[in-house]
Amino acid sequence: MRLAGEVCDTCGLPKEVCVCQDLETEQTVLRISMDTRRYGKAVTRIEGFEDTGALKEMARELKRAMATGGTAKKGWIELQGDHRDEVKAWLSQRGYRVEG
Ligand SMILES: [Zn+2]
Question: Which CATH superfamily groups domain 30-99?
């Protein structure tokens, strides 16, 4: 007999041996894109974060690393200027999977 909550809905294994949550974290893929605002200024956008706390910390570190301004929005980070290549390298070094 199985009680609700004992078995993972995704893989069917008992929760204590299930690794679905870990895999989900490893499989988080961030997307980097460039947006041009109406007034013609480029912004680099990084999307794919699930954790708002991590997002804010990441925004702070990225702004420092890229020496630019930016904001943490709900679910994404915007940096002023086109920093796609630098941001991609920076995130890859930290173990994030990046596309775009
Ligand atoms: Zn599972």
Answer: SUI1-like domain (3.30.780.10)
- Taking the centre of ligand 1 as the mean of its atom positions, its distance from the CA of residue 8, in whole angstroms, is 4
Q: How far apart are CA 11 and CA 47, in angstroms?
A: 27
DSSP string, 31-62: EEEEEE-TTS-EEEEEE----HHHHHHHHHHH
Alpha carbon of 25 to ligand 1 centroid (Å) = 13
**pLDDT per residue rounded down to tens, the chain (100 residues):** 545 568 888 888 888 888 876 665 566 789 999 988 777 899 999 998 877 777 888 899 999 999 999 999 888 999 999 999 999 999 888 878 888 6
Assessment of whether the complete model's pTM goes beyond 0.90: no
| Interval between CA 74 and ligand 1 midpoint (Å) | 27
**Residue spans per domain, the chain:** 30-99
Distance 21 CA to ligand 1 centre (A): 7
